[in-house]
Amino acid sequence: MTTTRLDLTGLKCPLPALKTRKALKSLTPGDRLEVLCTDPLSVIDIPNLIQETGDSVEITERAESRIVFLIEKAGQPLLRVP
């Protein structure tokens, strides 16, 4: 299980949601994605995106100028055969 950081500060709607969706595709189940945003609409867009994908999300920080989401990729981790 790894955590990837995605810095989307300065980007405006719809780019944070689109870039989050793209980053989630490269993760394996159980991996986490930490997303940093400054767009106030991301508190609506990213949770709606995660509801569609079936992953889980929590807002770990919400300040006046910064929002941090921690997203966990859903599904069972795949067993890797050496």
Topology:
Blueprint: E1 3-7, H1 15-25, E2 32-37, H2 42-53, E3 56-62, E4 67-72
Helix pairs in contact: 1-2
Note the main sheet.
4 strands, mixed
Terminal residue distance: 17 Å
Total helix count? 2
Q: What is the gyration radius calculated from CA atoms?
A: 13 Å
Work out the helicity level.
25-40%
| Low-pLDDT segments | none
SS elements, strand count: 4
- Helices and strands: which structural class? alpha+beta
Please tell me what the overall shape is: globular
- Succession of helices and strands: EHEHEE
Mean pLDDT: 90
Strand percentage lies at: 25-35%
Strand order of the largest sheet: 1-2-4-3
Short recap of the structure:
This protein is of the alpha+beta class and 82 residues long. It has helices spanning 15-25, 42-53; strands at residues 3-7, 32-37, 56-62, 67-72. Helices cover 28% and strands 29% of the residues.
Could you please describe the fold and organization of this structure?
- The protein contains 2 helices and 4 strands.
- By secondary structure, the protein is of the alpha+beta class.
- A 4-stranded mixed sheet has the order 1-2-4-3, covered by helices on one side.
- Helix 1 packs parallel to helix 2.
- The radius of gyration is 13 Å and the shape is globular.
- The chain starts with a strand and ends in a 10-residue tail after the last strand.
- The model has no long low-confidence stretch (mean pLDDT about 90).
